[in-house]
Amino acid sequence: MKQWIAFYQQHLLVLQGSFLLPSGALPKPDFCLALQPQASIELAVFSQLPELPGLQLWTDKEVRTLSTEDLMLYGRARTLYAWYQQHRFCGYCGHPTEPMIRGAEIYAHCPNCQARHYPRVNPCIITVVTRGEDLLLAQGKRHRTGLYAAIAGFVDAGESAEQALVREVQEEVGLEVYDQQYLGSESWPFPQQLMLAYQCQCLPGELRLQASEILDARWFHYQNLPDIPPVQTIAGRMIRYIAKTMQEAKTMQVAPKTH
Hints:
By secondary structure, the protein is of the alpha+beta class. The chain folds into two domains: 84 residues, no CATH class; 133 residues, Alpha-Beta Complex (Nucleoside Triphosphate Pyrophosphohydrolase). It is 22% helix and 35% strand. Strands 1, 2, 3, 4, 5 and 6 form a six-stranded mixed beta sheet that branches. Strands 10, 11, 12, 13, 14 and 15 form a six-stranded mixed beta sheet that branches. Strands 7-8-9 form a three-stranded antiparallel beta sheet, with no helix packed on it. Strand 10 and strand 11 form a beta hairpin. The protein is globular and about 65 Å long.
């Protein structure tokens, strides 16, 4: 039996603690799309809330508690859900589009002007600035969770990821950075972002916080970190990784020499 990752008005439908719903338990959705070629898991979109005992509506807050593996699966569904919402009509001529699947290729086809509208992601940088044994972590005004996280921002048109990193750090905390080291990437479906993770160092200077974006930013020693994002997020993993590498480097420095 097929399983659905189902949405109703931006909410994820959850039954008995699971976001993978048996298709036979729900009515026919308004829109349905396989998440992978020949896959048994499909995206399902409902314009009316299905009547099913025990059905819950999850917001982004609950979704962020999913495991890394489940979050990746949810992320693909969420990105395609956003694509479906944004491209039901052609952006060139306004004609209704038709969802098309050609192997691994998915796009909204306009039968009037033949335009193709593909699912898209927005590239973002996320970085931990370091200074000696300290990490610069910040609280953003938009996400008041009490957690201290990495600095992040969207890549502007015409920018490289490294240029965006330099600009974002300068804008948000007033520091000049160098020695950007790429750490990895993660799809972050809130709503359609591709996070590009970096570690970098900074030149001497005082913190100057961007009041419209940053609630607080501080230097923390790697052994005395504040509450940080969970490990299933790239921010949580990169902060832990950098702290671990600092600890390992410190251990190597103090290890007695053997002959």
